[in-house]
Design brief:
Number of helices: 0
Largest sheet: 7 strands, mixed
Order of helices and strands: EEEEEEEEEEE
Distance between the termini: 37 Å
Shape: globular
Radius of gyration: 13 Å
Structural class: mainly beta
Amino acid sequence: VQLQASGGGLVQAGGSLRLSCEVSGRTRYATAWFRQAPGKEREFVAAIKWSGGSTFYSDSIKGRFTISRDNAQNTVYLQMNSLKPEDTAVYYCATTQLPRTNYGLKSGSQYGYWGQGTQVTVSS
């Protein structure tokens, strides 16, 4: 399984970006986005199950970010609206092939495959 993340960049506060994560491999249970800001621990952002499309969000981004998937394109998207300077971070996508609990989907330790990360910078 390989993951290729893209779509990061520099945007002003209040703006929008859409991140993409192309996931190779036919077996996948869920894909998530995590982020890590300088000097901070990695944090969960959002996750989606490939079958059924159930979604899960961190409280810090709920209502501003939307995760979706395109099964035909093997791609997961993260639409980020109303961006804030505190959203500045390297964003990573990750995939698990194994079933996880809904609670477990918010933990990075539950994901076996990670993309290379894409930088998102929000200026004030």
